[in-house]
Write a structure and sequence with these properties.
With 287 residues, the protein is an alpha/beta fold. It folds into 2 domains: 4-113, Rossmann fold (3-Layer(aba) Sandwich); 143-287, Lactate dehydrogenase/glycoside hydrolase, family 4, C-terminal (L-2-Hydroxyisocaproate Dehydrogenase, Chain A, domain 2, Alpha-Beta Complex), CATH 3.90.110.10. Helix content is 41%, strand content 21%. It has 11 helices and 14 strands. It has helices at residues 11-23, 36-48, 50-53, 82-87, 96-109, 123-131, 144-159, 199-207, 209-212, 217-233, 274-286, and strands at residues 4-7, 28-32, 58-62, 73-76, 115-117, 140-142, 167-168, 171-174, 178-181, 187-188, 191-192, 239-245, 251-260, 263-267. The strands form 4 sheets. It has a 6-stranded parallel sheet with strand order 3-2-1-4-5-6, with helices on both faces. Strands 7-10-11 form a 3-stranded antiparallel sheet. It has a 3-stranded antiparallel sheet with strand order 12-13-14. A hairpin with a 2-residue loop joins strand 10 and strand 11. The protein starts with a strand and ends with a helix.
């Protein structure tokens, strides 16, 4: 059986590893960081919690990115050291030229499986991976929009005096300022959400998106874990992810996608009003 490689063992990388472990739907999680002792320590800490959390996932570690070659999925997270975080572009996540260098190294080493960017600031990394390194648009994606979607679902559940688990909605565009909720197709308890939530409440939730971005490391980790599992096991569900769209120069925005072992198997066009569609088209043009 294969393994899942997580590049970077900062707060986000460690949280992704823990989320994958406790969900217990993959065989092995390999933590990779230049600071090998940090990767080993986090792998050991998570592994030692297995009797309590009740999972059988194997946690391993490595100190070179070459150890990610052969993984079923590679997750690009965040470096463990402050100095490395600054070199990565100041966001704390593997991004910018340093992040692109990691992806380039993986490609040259022979990695051909999907790459999931777990951070909220890695949209440009996806764009450059497709545009400059010529990776397939199906192979590189970002899971952060799914974390934003989860927050909006929870808030919508509170407004309708129900549970966010029963709410289904999609986030498209480019958060924080050019994201759109596809209210036309949103549902709760199997019924249109528009029949249970007044227009001003939906407008209020849309207006809150900038304050909900970026999601925290645990929300980002939960989203990344679900996306990884969908890639490994295949899924008929749709996930809001950053993907490269359009023709010519790639534009990266959040869209509902279906996932499988090769990465993105299909990008779906959400049902949008004319105004919402215009906002999404403008977001694509500006990305």
């Amino acid at each position: 059986m294969g393994f899942i490689a997580i590049v970077g063992t900062g707060a986000l990388g460690g949280a992704v590893a823990h989320a994958l472990a406790v969900r217990d739907r993959v065989h092995e999680v390999r933590l990779i960081d230049d600071e090998g002792s940090v990767a080993r320590g986090k792998a050991l800490d998570i592994q030692q919690s297995s009797p309590i959390d009740g999972f059988s996932v194997r946690l391993t570690s490595a100190d070179t990115i070459d150890a990610a070659v052969g993984a079923e999925v590679v997750v690009i997270a965040d470096p463990s050291s402050t100095a490395a975080a600054r070199a990565a572009g100041g966001s704390g996540e593997h991004a910018g030229e340093a992040g692109l260098g990691l992806v380039r190294h993986l490609e040259r080493a022979g990695h051909r499986a999907p790459i999931v960017c777990a951070g909220a600031t890695q949209r440009e990394l996806i764009q450059k991976s497709v545009g400059e390194l010529h990776l397939s648009r199906a192979r590189v994606l970002g899971s952060a929009p799914l974390a934003l979607e989860s927050a909006l679902r929870a808030l919508a559940g509170i407004i309708i005096d129900g549970s966010g688990v029963e709410v289904s909605l999609r986030v498209v565009g480019t958060p924080p300022h050019h994201a759109v909720v596809a209210w036309e197709e949103a549902t709760a308890f199997g019924q249109p959400l528009s029949s249970q939530m007044p227009p001003h409440a939906m407008a209020g939730l849309s207006a809150r998106i900038p304050s909900l971005w970026p999601p925290g490391p645990y929300a980002l980790a939960s989203a990344a874990a679900r996306v990884v599992e969908a890639i490994v096991n295949g899924s008929r569900r749709r996930f809001s992810c950053f993907v490269a769209v359009g023709t010519g120069r790639p534009a990266v925005c959040a869209m509902p996608v279906q996932l499988g072992p090769s990465g993105v198997t299909q990008v779906h066009e959400p049902s949008l009003t004319r105004q919402e569609r215009t906002l999404v088209e403008n977001a694509v043009e500006k990305s």
